[in-house]
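Input.
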Amino acid sequence: MTAHRRVLVEPQPSGRVRVRVERPDGAFRSVGAFPPTEADNVAEHMRELLHASTTGTRERPTLRSVTERWQTSRELSGVKRAAGEIGRWALHVLADLIADIPFDSLTARHVRDWRKRVERKMVEKVFRGGKRKVLPRKLSPKTVKEMLQLVRSCLDFAVEEELLPRNVARDVKAPRGHKRHKAKTFLRPEHDTQLLRCADVPLCLRLMYGFLAREGMRISEAFALERSDLDLDAGTVNLDENKTDDPRSWKLDLGVVRALRAWLKLPRKAGDGDRLFVNTQGLPWSSLPKVSDFHQHLRAAGVEFAEYFETTPARLHLRIHDLRATFVTLALAAGESETWVTDRTGHRSHAMVQAYRRRARMAAELRLGKLAPLDHAIPELRAHVEPQPTAGGGVIRSVIRSARNSAPHRGIPVALLTRRSGVRVPLDPPLATIQRGASAWRSIRGTGGGRRFVSSRPPLRRAGKFR
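Output.
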């Protein structure tokens, strides 16, 4: 049996106390000089370490023993999703044999065998209340890669704490499985109108659905919006805090501005600086709405589009997050630029926007058009919307003048031009004459009770003909 080594406590002339530890060869090594109040604690700690090393009961560090300190250091350093990764770490690492292998015995082969076991695991879904269900599919290569990255991060922490000489997980390659993109869908404009007009769906949810589909925000960003983030007089929104830490601001859709003005006029328990979107109890949202509730609201509105509710190995059902995809798809189909879209959605790469191009081309071919103005789509808000002034003759003249000057519109009746421009033309009395520079456009013929304007100017002729 090995003899117990001694710990000496020696007072010094300076008033401090030096602690010495006996080495295996009989010599003494100095631990340091400490104040008298700390020297006894240091000596007692060294005696415990010597006793543990002699009896072989000293704890050997493992992944399980350093998990708590590693996760705390990640949260303090501001790593995003650190709290959400605790569940997956416990399911795939702490529940495996690798969690209890001492660091001094851990090799790259242990990590490689653990990775193979994780790749063979089936997906396990945890429901509210703790109920678990195993789904008939394996973990995706992306999930396995993320778990390997977490193991590497934990072992890097152990190397920094001098618990491990080197990170053996760096020698294990991540899986290169084929990343399968599932087909996704978006909300059609006619179905959006049905949903927003359904009185069986709470007004606060209909407003939120319509806002997400018309502004392209992430649902977490919309829930964090406060009244102070909006300037409804100028029609702008400031989004200073978001997922990508990239503050952005833009001009809201006019229908959204009018709807939010009407929404804030309704009686609700909110003051300046309170959340803009609240739940049915008038309180801020504490969790995201469930997809099942969203599908139930669509069915209550009479929407029975099978593509929204079916989930297959190659296709996803319609989610609330797909309202953001609805905004991007219809905006690109309407000819909006990529810069215009990213100013509102916050996408930081060209590839993210390109993923919507194919669906946008389909929407353009089907001529789905744009979503209805939010204030008109929700009946409860119409009574609180301020009436919009009708454009006068001067405004109509300027619109028609600019439309007539553009070559693609030549030969189209003026009444059709004003209808396309969105200007409300007074029908009684009709416009008899509209000035265009030195030329006059006269109302000379009416068909079917309606009127159209025909140019008194001779038709254009090509040079070299009709001489």
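The chain has 19 helices and eleven strands.
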